[in-house]
Amino acid sequence: MYCPFCRHPDSRVVDSRTTEDGTAIRRRRSCPECGRRFTTVETAALLVVKRSGVTEPFSRDKVVAGVRKACQGRPVTEDQLAQLAQRVEEAVRASGAAEMPSHEVGLAILGPLRELDLVAYLRFASVYQAFQSLDDFEKAIAELRLQGAQN
Q1: CB crowding 76-104: b at 16 or more within 10 Å, else e
Q2: Which residue ranges does the record assign to the ATP-cone domain (predicted)?
Q3: pLDDT tens, 20-71?
Q4: Where are the beta strands (DSSP E) in the chain?
Q5: Distances in Å between the alpha carbon of 21 and those of 26, 41, 83, 90?
């Protein structure tokens, strides 16, 4: 790790702590050359592979933006969307994969979204499960009713 002040190519870790949400490690470092201290933040890279083959870093903001469209006109708050995005990121990271297809991220959204709002869930599922006809919607609604009767 290069010192940001004198560019010395080495530094010593003084202290390490995890962030509040546990997704990163903050390290306090000291430069042996100039003696100044600085902080670094380390996170595990999680990449999403799009249909085109392009990879990009996972983004909670993109999850929120996609779900926000499905929730348009529904009684869902921004805090609920942020919590959903956090749950999705935790689930995706728990898979242990460094790269995940975007379709899998979309499917990981379905569970938490079903718990949040059923209409938004159907809207989102119609895209990610590629509903082709009204029969697909009827089948999904029947499954939701069956699950609701069991709970």
Answers
A1: beeeebeebbbbbbeebeeeeeeebebee
A2: 46-136
A3: 777 789 999 999 999 999 999 998 888 999 989 999 999 999 999 999 999 9
A4: 12-18, 24-30, 37-43, 47-49, 55-57, 99-101
A5: 12, 13, 12, 10
Strand-strand pairing, 47-49 and 24-30: unpaired
- The 8-class DSSP code of residue 20 comes to T
**Cα dihedral value 7, 10, 16, 22, nearest 10:** 70
The CA-atom distances, in angstroms, between 132 and each of 18, 22, 48, 109 are: 46, 40, 26, 20
Q: What is the pLDDT of residue 147?
A: 83
Residue 108 phi/psi, 5-degree rounding, is -70, -20
Please list, residue by residue across 54-70, b when 16 or more beta carbons sit within 10 angstroms of its beta carbon and e when fewer do: eeeebeeeebbebbeeb
